[in-house]
Write a structure and sequence with these properties.
By secondary structure, the chain is an all-alpha fold. Helices cover about 80% and strands about 0% of the residues. α3 packs across α6.
Length: about 240
């Protein structure tokens, strides 16, 4: 009894602390990518146009047009990409479902062999495979996990991906335009706000990765700043040439 009492608190502590972030959902990647892309692409677009010595009104119109075009493009691309991925997975699941219906014994033996390859005793592996194969839907789920590496009940949603991408891109792209909308007539407030947004986004991303917040933030700031500097130089060159 004393051993059980000693182990129980350890089990409770492990259960309380052993949690995982959602790494399979369809929202994180498009949201992060959308925000970063919105910031970098619209900042670069606006600095490129501003480098050509145009009016602040032209820069604002360019930024708003870039926001709208980019957000719709990102949403459409994400929806198509994730929908195609789901359709491919569903096609593979249909193949597996057909095989389970036509060749249940072969599929059971295949599952047992897979468990044996992972160190399970052959007799036990066969018994486990036999029990799991009694329910066709459960068997399909197990085969999908083991053979395809997917969870049929946790596929990314095209709608979630599109909405996340649209909203995050629009929010990111709005930052460099915001100072102009609030009355600024120079480029530098837009650049400073956008660079601060890039650092903040990078730091936030670090909360769901193994990177430190300052490294992730500085990486995004440097990459976005470099893109803006290059396009500003190109804008100046083209403006001078024209």
């Amino acid at each position: 009894m004393s051993i059980i009492e000693a182990v129980a608190p350890l089990h409770e502590a492990h259960r309380d602390n052993h949690t995982h972030r959602d790494v399979n959902g369809g929202w994180l990647r498009p949201a992060v990518f959308g925000a970063m892309d919105g910031l970098v692409s619209n900042l670069a677009l606006m600095t490129g146009v501003a480098g050509g010595a145009v009016s602040s009104q032209t820069v604002v119109i360019t930024g708003l047009a870039g926001l709208a075009a980019g957000a719709f493009s990102m949403a459409a691309g994400e929806y198509t990409s994730v929908a195609s991925q789901r359709e491919l997975v569903q096609a593979e699941l249909d193949v597996e479902r057909s095989q389970l219906r036509k060749h249940p014994i072969d599929e059971m033996e295949e599952l047992a062999a897979l468990y044996v390859s992972r160190g399970v005793e052959p007799a036990l592996a066969r018994e486990v495979a036999m029990q799991l194969s009694r329910d066709p839907e459960q068997a399909l789920e197990i085969h999908a996990r083991e053979e395809l590496g997917i969870d049929p009940d946790d596929l990314p949603s095209p709608t979630v991906a599109a909405v996340s991408s649209f909203g995050s891109f629009a929010l990111g792209a709005l930052l460099p335009v915001l100072p102009y909308l609030l009355g600024a007539t120079a480029l530098w407030p837009a650049v400073l706000l956008a660079l601060a947004g890039l650092f903040a986004c990078g730091a936030l991303v670090a909360r769901v990765t193994a990177r430190s917040w300052w490294f992730s933030g500085l990486r995004q700031l440097v990459l976005g700043g470099a893109a803006a500097a290059v396009t500003y130089g190109l804008g100046m060159a083209f403006g001078a040439a024209l």
